[in-house]
Design a protein that fits this description.
Blueprint lengths: L4 H6 L7 E4 L3 E5 L7 E7 L6 H7 L2 H16 L7 E4 L3 H4 L7 E6 L9
Antiparallel strand pairs: 1-2, 2-3, 3-5, 4-5
Bound molecules: adenosine monophosphate and zinc ion.
Length: 114
Amino acid sequence: MSDCLFCKILKAEIPSEKVYENDVVYGFKDIQPLAKEHYLFIHKSHTKNINDLATQAPHQLTDVFTAISDFTRTNNLEEDGFRVVTNVNSNGGQTVFHTHFHVLGGEALKGFGA
Ligand code: AMP
Ligand code: ZN
C-alpha cells in the first residue's frame, strides 16, 4: 500500500535497521524500543492487522512465526526467553496499520503476571 509506513520501509523509501529477511518476511529494529531488544516482524504482503490477515492470508502467520523462531534461535533470544506481541486498533494501541509482531527480549519483561 502506497501510504503505509511499513510498506515504505519494505521498498526502502524509509530507512530501517534490518535484523532478518527472507523471501516473504522482514524483521527490523523498533525505532522506540520498549525493551533492551525490540524488533518488528512483518510479512512483505500488506494486511492491516491480524484479523485481516486471518481472513485474507492465514498462511502468513506460519511465514512470520517461522521467521521469528529462526531469528530468536540464532540470536541468543531463545534460552533467556522473549515475548511476541501484536496490537489491534485503538484499544490495543495499534498505530501502524500493517500487521506486525513486536519481538521483545534482552531482559526480564514486566507485565502479564511477571
Ligand atoms: P504499534 O503501536 O503496535 O502499531 O507499533 C508500531 C511500532 O512501530 C511502534 O513500536 C513504533 O515505535 C514503531 N515504528 C514507527 N515508525 C518506525 C520506523 N520508521 N522504524 C521502526 N519502527 C518504527
Ligand atoms: Zn503495508
